């Protein structure tokens, strides 16, 4: 009997302990749920505050960026409020039917349509020409002023001037500030330089297309073949040009000659007879037998020499350049060597430096 009673007491104690543990767990869960709800509410409040701050900053930024528009467009509204009803009544009286009420759509809306189109084109496509849109603004502006001036002229000249001025005041303010905002001196100078460069490039491409060689394929299609290089547009053609400090393109023979001249060459070694080496007749009168004579040399023929048909070696050209420099008695220029020896400008410059350094080191 006592064992049964003790068992019941133990069971009731266990039940009370279990109930107590359940209540403690429920209270802990309630506290956790309340804390989570508080955190979620705080997070939502912070998100709403951040969104409001961001929206406020966005509105402030928009107002700063469109401060001019906020001042100009109210002027346009005032101009329209004054001009549209007056022009509608004028159209009704002029046409003597209700269709005249839409006359403001032509006089007022027309100029604004071109003004807005001009602004959108300049913002979205700044590289495009806006000459036609600008002309449209000018033409419809004159029309709006003329119609309103004619309406006001029925009363007096002053009324005509006032009504015409009110009609175009808004669009004029828009064009002076928003449609075509003023630019700084540096921006205007940069724009002029860019326009000059664009015109020069367009002219060069036009002349290059005119001078290009046409490559015709077997199927009848054709394409233009251009010669790369440096050119100057002169008149109706492109002329080859050289720029100091830039490499000058040379043909294969000139390139090989330049490579040979870059080596260590003996200026006194001759690879051919004097007749072949010296492009100037009479400059060196050595014969094939090598016999010296006491007679004076014959006079030099002033007739310009004909271009040699045989290929000259680098040694021959260098020897000829040395003789020209000795005969000249002073340092020679690259243009002088190029003209006398009929060589490329790059080779002439290399020879000039080499010959002048050897014969006139102190000059």
From TrEMBL:
Biased composition (Pro residues): 295-305
Keywords per UniProt: Membrane, Transmembrane, Transmembrane helix
Transmembrane region(s): 70-90, 102-121, 133-151
Region (Disordered): 1-44, 281-315
Keyword Transmembrane helix belongs to the record: yes
Name of the protein described by the UniProt record: Uncharacterized protein
Species this protein is from: Parafrankia irregularis
């Amino acid at each position: 009997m006592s064992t049964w009673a003790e068992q019941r007491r133990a069971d009731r104690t266990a039940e009370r302990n279990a109930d107590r543990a359940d209540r403690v767990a429920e209270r802990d869960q309630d506290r956790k749920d309340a804390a989570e709800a508080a955190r979620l509410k705080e997070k939502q409040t912070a998100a709403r505050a951040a969104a409001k701050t961001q929206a406020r900053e966005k509105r402030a930024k928009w107002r700063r960026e469109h401060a001019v528009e906020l001042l100009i467009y109210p002027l346009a509204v005032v101009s329209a409020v004054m001009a549209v009803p007056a022009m509608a009544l004028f159209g009704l009286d002029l046409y003597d039917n209700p269709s005249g009420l839409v006359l403001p759509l032509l006089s007022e809306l027309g100029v604004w349509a071109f003004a807005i189109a001009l602004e959108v084109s300049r913002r979205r496509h700044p590289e495009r020409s806006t000459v036609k849109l600008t002309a449209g603004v000018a033409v419809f502006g004159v029309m709006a002023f003329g119609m309103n001036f004619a309406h006001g002229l029925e009363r007096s000249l002053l009324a005509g001037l006032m009504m015409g001025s009110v009609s175009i005041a808004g669009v004029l303010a828009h064009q002076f500030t928003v449609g075509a905002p003023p630019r700084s001196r540096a921006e205007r100078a940069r724009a002029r330089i860019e326009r000059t460069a664009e015109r020069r490039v367009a002219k060069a491409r036009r002349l290059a297309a005119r001078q290009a060689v046409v490559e015709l394929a077997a199927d009848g299609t054709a394409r233009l073949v251009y010669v790369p290089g440096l050119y100057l547009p002169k008149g109706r053609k492109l002329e080859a040009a050289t720029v100091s400090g830039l490499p000058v393109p040379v043909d294969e023979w000139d390139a090989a000659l330049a490579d040979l001249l870059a080596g260590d060459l003996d200026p006194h070694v001759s690879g051919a007879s004097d007749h072949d080496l010296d492009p100037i007749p009479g400059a060196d009168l050595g014969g094939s037998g090598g016999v010296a004579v006491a007679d004076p040399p014959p006079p030099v023929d002033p007739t310009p020499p004909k271009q040699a048909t045989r290929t000259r070696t680098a040694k021959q050209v260098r020897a000829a350049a040395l003789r020209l420099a000795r005969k000249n008695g002073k340092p020679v220029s690259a243009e002088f060597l190029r003209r006398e020896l009929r060589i490329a400008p790059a080779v002439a410059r290399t020879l000039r430096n080499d010959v002048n350094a050897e014969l006139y080191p102190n000059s």
